[in-house]
Amino acid sequence: MLHLRVMCPAEVTDAVLDKLRNQPGAVHLTIARGVAVDPPGDLVQADVVREAVDGLLADLCELGIDHLGGITLQPLDTVLSDAADAAALAAPGEPADAVVWEELIARTGNDSRLTFTFMAFLALACLIAVVGVVTDSPITVVGAMVVGPEFAPLAALAVGLVLRRGDLLRRAALALGVGFPMAMLIAAAGALLSEWIGLIDLGVVGSLKHVDFIYQVGPFSLILAMLAGAAGMISLTSAKSAALIGVFISVTTVPAAAFAALAVTTGAWRTAVESTVQLLVNLGGIAFAGVLVLLLRTRREDRNLGRPLTEG
Description:
By secondary structure, the protein is of the alpha+beta class. It has helices spanning about 10-20, 50-60, 65-70, 80-90, 100-110, 115-135, 140-145, 150-165, 165-195, 220-235, 245-250, 255-265, 270-295; strands at about 1-10, 25-35, 40-50, 70-75. The protein is built from 13 helices and four strands. It has a four-stranded antiparallel β-sheet.
């Protein structure tokens, strides 16, 4: 269940109340008239079951609330109410299967920005993968997979393709297109510096046995990437974020990028090419599976949903 807050001009408050009263999935309706200062107006609040949120947001946006005032949503972990239980039964569908498209657009859009934090996590993940490779340690490589933040822009890419959102596509493409090359350069520089000061020996890269799966491309590379991408998108659309950890450690995106950077520093060009292909296969498989999941879950004819994303 989600808590809905609507700030609206006084002249449309009654229309907002009618929308909420006519929605069986909305309960605990309250109103505070004249409390909104900027923009001036009223504050209307309600608790809404997840499966009713998407339709209700569409109704409120038809009234122009997203332009005249504001709409916010907040998840509720615990609700003890007979009225809420009745609303859950009255609303069609199941909460776990409901997609709140505006929430999905906002979440993927915000998490896919090319920010210092995104670059820091990606670079750190590649550096951890470098350590895992030169020490022939699969456990360390798995740690790098968990740290990597690349699923967010891949999810944004899938959402942008399905909903035909150019702003999401541009943001995701920038994060991936700039993020990975920069992280690979940092990984290569870190590897060369570590060898120069005597911490590691890059000569071992050609004789690794336990982490050679990183650059070995095969049918299962694409299959696992698609399975992980499908699981990740289902997790995002159903608010089951715990499953994302399993997605992160199922694909070799960051390790492949790190291995490619290492291979270049040692002149192992074939391994560098194979690692790069592995990276591209995994990125493409995740995004493609995300698109398929969203197409299956999209029920509206108009898929151009959501307000344009703002930078910042």
